[in-house]
Design goal:
- By secondary structure, this protein is α+β, with helices and mostly antiparallel strands.
- It has 2 domains: 5-87, GMP Synthetase, Chain A, domain 3; 93-142, no CATH class.
- 56% of the residues lie in helices and 13% in strands.
- A hairpin with a 2-residue loop joins strand 1 (37-43) and strand 2.
Amino acid sequence: MTKALHELVATCLPTDNWRFTLMKEWPTIFGPFSNRVSFEAVHDETIVLGVSDACLMQELYLLSPLIVSTIQKTIGNMTIKKVRLKRTEVVTHQKQHTKMAQQNAKKPISLTRAELHALECIADAELKEALRRYCIRCHQERM
């Protein structure tokens, strides 16, 4: 069973903690950009945000007073007074899948006896090869 991060954190932190509120309301604060801007840290009065690309970082720098006021309104706390931006790479599901495929491609895959026997029963060479590659890909994804 999976749970949202804010549900897990709620069991560890008191719910009146402003940092918890900030994490919980992150998608509301940044809307459609919440997957490209990450909450990295808080140091004294400064919030550190990770940004996925340089153009967005420039725009957010210019909008930093608005970001501060939005955060203050959302969390109901005047602790945050500055925004610091840093470049981070956002790892998407596709990038993870590609990286896994590259790692698994290096490992030799051998088919089971049952799979080899089933492939021997297929007369069409093109279909046999396509199914062989499919079996290999299934083994790679399991690793």
